[in-house]
Please model this.
Amino acid sequence: MPMSRTCAVQSALFLLCSTVMLQSVHAAPAERWTLIHAGQLLDRPGRAPRSQATIVIRNDRIESILDGYAFPAETGGVPADATVVDLRNRFVLPGLIDSHVHLATDKAGIERQLARISQSTADAAYEAAVNARKTLAAGFTTVRNLGDPENVVLALRDAIAAGKLPGPRILDAGYSISATAGHMDGTLGYREEIHEFFEQRENTCNGADDCRRAVRKQIARGVDVIKFGSTGGVNSPIGLGLGRQMFDDEARAIVETAHMYGKTVAVHAHGADGIVLALQAGVDSVEHGTLLDDEGLDLFVKTGAYYVPTLSTVNGYIERLEKNPDAYTPDVRAKIEWRIGITGKSLEKAVPRGVKIAFGTDAGVSMHGRNADEFELMVKFGMTPGQAIAAATVNAADLLGLSEQVGTLEPGKQADLIAVEGNPLEDVTVLKDVKLVMKGGAVFDPR
Ligand SMILES: [Zn+2]
Model:
């Protein structure tokens, strides 16, 4: 048995290590081998699918992919008691990745405003766990959580990674950063006497130095990625519009500080001026990007930043308003009407220019577990099904810095995969009804 790296470098602890190694020999769990027979297999989105293949999985990783249907007895190195999963009448593809979710809530508008002062942190944590489970059941095995004022997703990320709870692997941004009066200023819409409670979040910043502090605060908490807002937001309960709300030096300070620590940066931006500001500052992805102009398009191409369209938000707005026409304050309602009318226009411009697109829904604004509804909208506004699937696999993996682990099905990568009925390259809506989800070599049981 190879000596662990910790043991090798800590020779002074050799005796202790020897003991640990002996114990681990006795306690070593049996290896788990699985063979998946895939009728159709899109192992590398962007290329043609293959038919009749066997995915050989050892523990949590893909060992090999073979042509035809192989069985344990005839496959070298695979024990006779390996599990065989019959997906010969299914289409198999990599587990999906949503680059923009908010797991801690499924409330919006006035209901959310109330929840933020009536709900405990423990309430939010349970809600996040339920939403994570729904997300995994929908075939999304990895997500990037972009903004968590409830302060629960960092712990959820670690609990899922430790196998304590079912859910997708999570990259988390902690609290999103914004200027005072900006989209993520938690005090907006509340009486001044309780502003102090929200200001404890320390996520608002004004001036370059203060913005560096705000980024470092999140990094100290252990976040994976930094999110900030350069423009107003549809959901912020204030009538400030959706244009730019930050100065050059503030945006630059945020991006430079995050990059210094090796963290990527996602920006919330609707107005064209705020998109340009963020791209000039060097962000890695622009979320929403609702009013994309020619300058913004040129900058996307020049910088190689990703565009994350989050078209599903309009589904969330429409469904909530159908249930309750007074779900939002008048300021927010006006912005929602505008957003519904303009949805998809930026994507229609970005696709022919070759802008890199990563899949992201803004689930939390739209409904958790319905993440795959985004595919239909992406196709409606200019992408082919194949491009939309690549956006949710190889592209999103690249944006999240996880290309070595997920996004394609290849030897050495995580065994994260889903199976659907029918060919999603012909009809992308079949992705809304996932028949099997496997994450890290384990089939998820949704019951
Ligand atoms: Zn969002």
